[in-house]
Amino acid sequence: MAGTDTEPVAAADDALYVLTAVLLTPAQFPSVLGDDYPEACAALDLAPRADGYGLVLGQDGHGARWTVVIDDVSLVAVAIASWDCGMEYELSPDERAVVTALPGWPLAVAVAAPGVPAPHDPPAEEAGRSALCPPDTASWGPAQRRLGADEIALQWAAWREQINDADFPAPGERTPDVRSAREDEGAGAGGHAGVRRVLAEARAYVDSPPPLGRVRSSFAPGEARTLRADGPGWSIVARTDDIAFVLLDEEPGEVLPVGRGPELPGLLEALDKMAVRPL
Length: 279
Hints:
By secondary structure, this protein is of the alpha+beta class. The protein is built from 7 helices and 10 strands. It has a 5-stranded antiparallel β-sheet with strand order 1-2-3-4-5. Helix 6 packs across helix 7. It is elongated and about 60 Å long. This is Integral membrane protein. Residues 166-192 are annotated as: Disordered.
């Protein structure tokens, strides 16, 4: 979460005590909501607006959880940047910027507004729809796979230092740091079958662009970029000057490193050229 700001703002016919906010744009969206930007918007019953949205998460005066969707993306971006720098910022969107107010929170929020009842979902008759809720972290699935990829992107150095380049087998196979490729019964020649499938589907994106947001590029140290690609049942996190990590729905909790080899650099370069980037 970016930070907290418990000043009330008017929304959903009540004051909203803002706890945090996130962006919902083609280049930056909560990955728990989907593999791409249109899918993430559909999870909130929103049209995939070109400029995106800001999601303001807070509680009303009764303690109920609400996610207020606004079209002032710049305001939310400034608030998040300020909070990330440890600065105070009062996020108070104009009522005219409010697109809709959705019951519940799509993400886990560890804080609560002071002086109001504990966070709870608003009554169904008041909300008009089922409340949003974060994914169940007790079971592995698409949302958990994408959250795992988020964590690798955020903690790249920690994950990368676990990998010894000298241990890399052929591109696409697992390294002994994760699980020996010899344990992959039925994977076939040339490496892990699931990883080969993922790399083939990622290559297909270059010729047939996928839905917006399935390939995203963000800042990385030096001249590199952090590349994120998602698809049906898989996620890739990579640095354009380094290796890649693959996560699969059918491999609960597994992180599969892919060495650079002769093909990965060209694939990452091609994906980076077509990727959407934060403004």
